[in-house]
Amino acid sequence: MNGAEHSSSASQPDHTPEGGESTVQAVFSHIHFTQCLTPSSLMLHMSSEPVHQMSAPLKYSIPHAVVSFGPAGQLIRVNPGLSTQENVSQLEIHSLEVILSETQEQQEMRNFPGPLTREDLHKVDAIEFAHQRAGGCMRDDKLQDKSSAALLWNLLILLCRQNGVSASFGSDVAELLMQGSNSDGSWESDAPTLIDFNENTTAEAPPRKGDDLLTGNWTSFSSENSEKALQSYTKLLLAGRKKEALEAAMTSGLWGHALFLASKMDNRSYTTVLNRFTGQLTVSDPLQTLFQLLSGRIPSVATCCGNEKWGDWRPHLAVMLSNETGNLAVQQKAIVTMGDTLASRGLIHAAHVCYLTASVPFGVFTQKAERWVLLGSSHRQSLEDFATNSAIQCTELYEYCQTLVDKSFSIPSFQVYKFLYASRLLDCGLPSQAFHYCEVVGQAILRQREPFFVLTEEVVKVYTSDQSCHGDVSHKVYMDACMFLFVLQLSDRLRFSEGQFSEGGLSGVEQEPVWLKHLRARHHNLQVISFCGSLISHCLTISERKNLDR
């Protein structure tokens, strides 16, 4: 290649329709040519040939508008036109808050009084919002189980009223469960039951002669037959034939006599009478569930609920919550198993009611075997369908209820979803609320002794194969540092949009809030730890390779 060749190649016209490929080739030819020249030849070339400047083709043939988003909820627009000294293009700055004020998403975010903090929010406002959401669930035809979705919000209202204290939570929840158990008539059945859940019950007449004193059911025997059965039972006892008397009492429906006699005999006889007595009940009777639970067994309804045969699941959960047993582990396992069964049938809200009453810990999105991550949503969906605003708001309300009894309470794995919610607030043109969320999230992660965040690839694309870390500890510290970094970056974007900061005349460093300074220092420490961990792991790897080569 010589100077003449370069000059001719640089002046060749562009024959490509779009003009992009020939321009790129010309640029790379120019770079290759200048790299091949020596200083002496370059001086000779510059002195012998005139320099031809390359002109890139215009990206647009006519003037056009340029639109961009600002750092804190602004929309910047440059009107089309050729900018000259006499004619300057007009720059317009619009507010996304005003542009999106009529959208449903912004209205829903405005209605939510978040971030929910114990210091800034009275629980009356939180309860009012939950009431509105419960009513909205009953009007939402898209929900598969509207009553259970409303029940979940009402359960949070109950927890909020009790200031997060669950001392009498079981009996209160049982009462709440039964308030709507027959609202759609799904639980009403013609099958016999020993429990009447109706509140407005009329005064019962005394049992008639011939009624069973325990169940109150009219037996198939007449009065004469009942007297004969009792006389026969008495004669057998007078003759010392207790086993035959016990069998006669059960056959005649004299369950009161049978249970009393069996209680004075051996355990086997008593168990037999109990099994025969409970066998008279339908499998879907809540009393059957209670008897099985008191016997130390997982009730059958726990693995079979959620279909038409078993009716409504709520009376069964109510009877398990309102009756304490000596074995709390079995009771909790029964409730959790019921939640698993409901979740397997797609009744997510119903399952989460069970998990909430059983105090099941929250899991993380990447672990699909976890029972729940956000209230009212299944983490087995995609992140877009899972992390809805409603699910984040519902979970934040539960977290707020717990702060009423413990002001330092927070759900570690939930902070990343509050950060995601802050980003959505900014997209809707609400930078002030977004900054407040950054503050709440920042203070929460600073309180964590061992930061616990799982930032999946669906949330943020920060961890790729070419950024591999050596060792689980180094990887975890890296991910924790990423969480701090994201909160810092968004906070730095938004803090100058706050009114109290923009009005002051202080410098940027002096305007920085205390929590943001602590967050920045914590992030720096995590970066140092991550670097040291990676360095140590790298040195160990080199040492192991040397040992293998020997």
Automatic annotation (TrEMBL):
Domain named Sec16 Sec23-binding: residues: 235-449
GO BP annotations listed: Golgi organization; peroxisome organization; protein localization to endoplasmic reticulum exit site; protein transport; vesicle-mediated transport
Signal peptide: none
Subcellular localization, as worded in the UniProt entry: Endoplasmic reticulum membrane; Golgi apparatus membrane
Region feature Disordered, mapped onto this chain: 1-21
GO cellular component terms, A-Z: endoplasmic reticulum exit site; endoplasmic reticulum membrane; ER to Golgi transport vesicle membrane; Golgi membrane
Biased composition (Polar residues): 1-14
Record bears the keyword Protein transport: yes
Membrane topology: Peripheral membrane protein
Keywords: Endoplasmic reticulum, ER-Golgi transport, Golgi apparatus, Membrane, Peroxisome biogenesis, Protein transport, Transport
InterPro entries recorded: Sec16_CCD, Sec16_Sec23-bd
Domain Sec16 central conserved, residue spans: 64-164
The keyword Transport is annotated on this UniProt entry: yes
Family: Belongs to the SEC16 family.
Assembly: SEC16A and SEC16B are each present in multiple copies in a heteromeric complex.
Role noted for this protein: Plays a role in the organization of the endoplasmic reticulum exit sites (ERES), also known as transitional endoplasmic reticulum (tER). Required for secretory cargo traffic from the endoplasmic reticulum to the Golgi apparatus. Involved in peroxisome biogenesis. Regulates the transport of peroxisomal biogenesis factors PEX3 and PEX16 from the ER to peroxisomes.
Protein's recorded name: Protein transport protein sec16
Organism: Amphiprion ocellaris (Clown anemonefish)
Protein encoded by which gene: SEC16B
